[in-house]
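Appendix B. One record, verbatim.
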Amino acid sequence: MAISYPRRQQLRRLRCAATRAAQAAVALAAAVFCARTGEGALAGALALVGAALAVSSRRALRLAGRSRVGAESEAQVRRLLEVLRDDGWQVSHAVNRPGGGDLDHVVRSPHGIGFVIETKTLRDTHAHVLRTADAARRRYPGGVRPVLCLTRTRSVERSEGGVLVVSPDRLMPALHRIGRSTR
């Protein structure tokens, strides 16, 4: 199973946070050593470097937390979509997108209707909707329906610029309804 982009991003950010924290510890230890040996200017510079690295580590840790939320949202939608396999649907996750990133989920109904599903946690912007539609068209120029699933909402189902914007509780009924339609 492919690891989703947000999960890879989370792991990358956690590694960065750990590396920066270790570098900060070394710089601060060196600053203490220099201060004890009478190298005040060098100790000050090392303390400043250590503090900057500590701030950078904290920022990377905060961003890793945001990526974790995105990865959990994608996992939630992944679990919902997996039951479609039993009904003859083709389901793929974390499909590489040219130029970086991935398409969160790609599904095709037994009737040949395809969907590219982008997962967002709470809200969407017009830019998210446009990116979802663009990703669907680029990857599948023959035609698929772009879907934006907002995982921390309920009772949402609307069409915006040709993109189905839907909450998880409405995702499966909408896919079944649209997936049975003819092109």
